[in-house]
Design a protein that fits this description.
The complex is a heterodimer of chains A (272) and B (200). With 272 residues, chain A is α+β, with helices and mostly antiparallel strands. Chain A has 7 helices and 8 strands; from the N terminus they run αααααααββββββββ. In chain A, helix 1 packs across helix 2 and helix 1 runs parallel beside helix 3. Classes of the chains: A alpha+beta (272), B mainly alpha (200). The interface between A and B is large, with 46 and 63 residues.
Chain lengths: 272, 200
Amino acid sequence: MSDNDDVSLLAAGYYLGSLTPQERDEYEAYLASSDDAAKGSEDFEATAEMLAHDVAEATPSADLKSRLLAQIAVTPQVDPARDAPAPPTAVPDPVLLSPVSTARDAHSVGSAEERAKARWFTRPGTILGAAAAAIALFVGGGALGMNLGGAGGPSIEQSADALAQISAAPDVHRSTKDLQGGGTATVVSSLEQGKSVMVFDGLKKQPDGKTYQLWYISDGVATSAGLMSGSSTNGWHVLDGTLKSDSVVGLTVEPAGGSKEPTTKPLVAITT
Amino acid sequence: MLRDMRSGTGVGEERVDDAPTTIDDLLLRTADGNQSAFGELYDRIVPRVLGAIKRLLIDHAQSEEVAQEVFLEVWQSARRFEPNKGGAATWIITMAKRRAIDRIRSAQSSHDRDTRVGIRDYDAGYDTVAEHAEISIERERVGVAMTSLTDSQRQAIALAYDGGYSHSEIAEMLSVPMGTVKTRLRDGMIRLRTELGVST
């Protein structure tokens, strides 16, 4: 055999697609080395192209079909693969979110904040003003806890009640979006009640020293709607504050203790 | 294939229905639980299913076993077939090739399994071959040429070309030396080249 034996061994593989990158380089160098080589390779190329037309056929034994028909008579068909699960409509398992753990000041809400909080929840018609006032108050108040949920945050029962109430509202609205970095978030909201809750699935734990923060964003103003730590990736958080008709709900990662305004781009922003 | 120009059917062929049922139709009806549609689907496509499997497995009895598994899976998962992602024939025959390769791999002694099941997804004319149209000249020619190869050569070519496997992967799957794989591929291609009359 000629010393081109090795190369001809590569030739078949080249056109069949079974060479390693190194072998391909080797073969291509050989092709470039001589006209004969290039010419000879054209035959293999044309041959390989014919393979695309090959439709192999073989005849089965007669009893294959009867065995098969007997089998399928007792074999169920499976449903098509499901789409991504719809946002939960039932109350999910109690979330393990801790109330704001870093904002100790939440426990020492002053009377002014109480009044501001009251304005938040009790006068939907003047929310804009209330929100602005609330923010102003909080900004003026310095490093106060942004958790409007009251001392220590809501209990699981209260939180679950709130979620159930919102879900049961006649004007309930749901909107789901993907979270940056994975998972999904659904905002369940009721304008009538002026409340919303974010339900999430697959939310990653926040980085060390950081917290998740929810926001109501309206008219270019972002209002904190609560802090949460993601100790469970699936769960929900009732937003603190009142939902407005043009509210956008946002979720950002902020330094522990929260921020007065979002300092990072949102993981998600959902119109209600 | 000679054709009767008036009726459009091949001489000696049965007259076909005005609206011939396609493989896709049969699969969709199978998805509804229609067992007789499944039977018809079997009749129509089993030669190609068994042919594709046998090319890879060589042994007829084993190939029939795999074919049975394939058709059972077709029955079970017919509802998962999505018509917009390619034809039913390709779906079924690709499934057949995957199972055949799984069967080869399960005979491997090595535990180091490559999870990639690289089946060339090109449309090998499975879906474009109209049931009642002429078989393409190329298909006939290459089909005849392939009969002049040995089983081993056809198998090696199928693994390389259809499966996209490298020499070393094929060698491992078949438990033969790599040199043997290369020789089979080369000799098979030389034979094909000759039979097809490809020469410049």
